[in-house]
Design brief:
The chain is an alpha/beta fold. It folds into three domains: 3-221, Rossmann fold (3-Layer(aba) Sandwich); 225-327, Tyrosyl-Transfer RNA Synthetase, CATH 1.10.240.10; 328-401, Structural Genomics Hypothetical 15.5 Kd Protein In mrcA-pckA Intergenic Region, Chain A, CATH 3.10.290. Helices cover 46% and strands 13% of the residues. The protein contains 17 helices and eleven strands. The strands form two sheets. The protein has a six-stranded mixed β-sheet with strand order 1-6-5-2-3-4, sandwiched between helices. α3 links the parallel β2 (41-46) and β3 (73-78). α11 runs antiparallel to α14 (291-307), α14 (291-307) packs across α15 and α16 (345-351) packs across α17 (358-366). The radius of gyration is 23 Å and the shape is globular.
Amino acid sequence: MQLSDMDNQLSELLRGSVDVAERTELKNRLKRSAESKIPLIVKAGFDPTAPDLHLGHTVLLNKLHQFQKFGHRIIFVVGDFTALIGDPTGKSGLRPPLSEDLIKQNAETYTQQAYKILDPDKTEVRYNSSWLGILSSNDIIKLMTSMTVSRMLERDDFKRRFKSEKAIYLHEMLYPLLQGYDSVAIKADIELGGTDQLFNLLVGRSLQKLHNQKPQIVMTLPLLEGTDGKNKMSKSLGNYIGITEDPNTQFGKTMSIPDEIMWRYFTLVSSFDGNRISELKSDVANNKIGMKEAKETLAYDIVERFWGKDKAHDAKLYFNQLFSKGQVPENIEQIDVKFDADLELATLLRDVGLTKSRSEAKRKIREGAVRIDGNKIELLPKSAQTIVIKLGKKIIKVNFV
């Protein structure tokens, strides 16, 4: 491999990353791998805590795909054992562990959804119960001797809970050690994770040193903001774009993200390389295209990845016919509603006459029958001035005043 090719590979792999330990060593390993034709082992772990993946999860999957594209060995670690503990990262209290049956169900859907991005023929799926589940009591005690309490309390979430006198359970402190041991078990060269996982990833380096392995390169990637542009993408907050959601919903939700985070989405979840993204930025800056057109390019790319070109084309057409530039069907009913930050979706549906009662509205919401601006939705957007609500064959436009 020529030096220029290596520099291009390194630049592409580092694009979007936040923490890299260690950058120089990463370049050296990539070079040695190219010379020896022995691929690097690149690992990322996913605890199956929910049945579906959203775009926030694909930030790591996209980076794994880049390593895969350059010929490296990808290991998708399903944390079926660590999910029994519950990752305490970012939690202000105890995270309830999941049942084994639910973990198994979630794990099956995780891997199938991951294959929408990763090449299934070139991806190794490993369940960490296969090595963690056979550790003896002596093994666990030996593992615990590698970490002090004071070092563990350097974790931001543990530090906050300790200062605020909130409970920290002993089994939670096992989580970083077990995740770190995953890297020992598979002899990882590189581990990827979100910025909130930095502590755990560095534990993996420490444990590999104790086991006479070369410490893995650690790369963290940003946590993707949701469609509200503020909070981390999360299904519980209703600001997520699911990778199994229908094309119209995916397209519409992508179009709803604030302009100021659009380029982060391009960098972290689109299929475009750095050069293509730079071209689009230049086109917007020089007024060759507008922000809306750039965002449509992003939405089309996301839908195409998960549903194909035909579905992406149809979703774009649907969005533009119904919602673009304020265009709505000519006979649509429009209702002015006094803005109230505490207004609930069920109440709005009843008040505008789409349902007869709040209970009926809640049932329709649970069934996924309510669409706002083309998206299946469960929570009322708090920042929109105008929304188009569709329930069955009824469509109304609500103007908040």
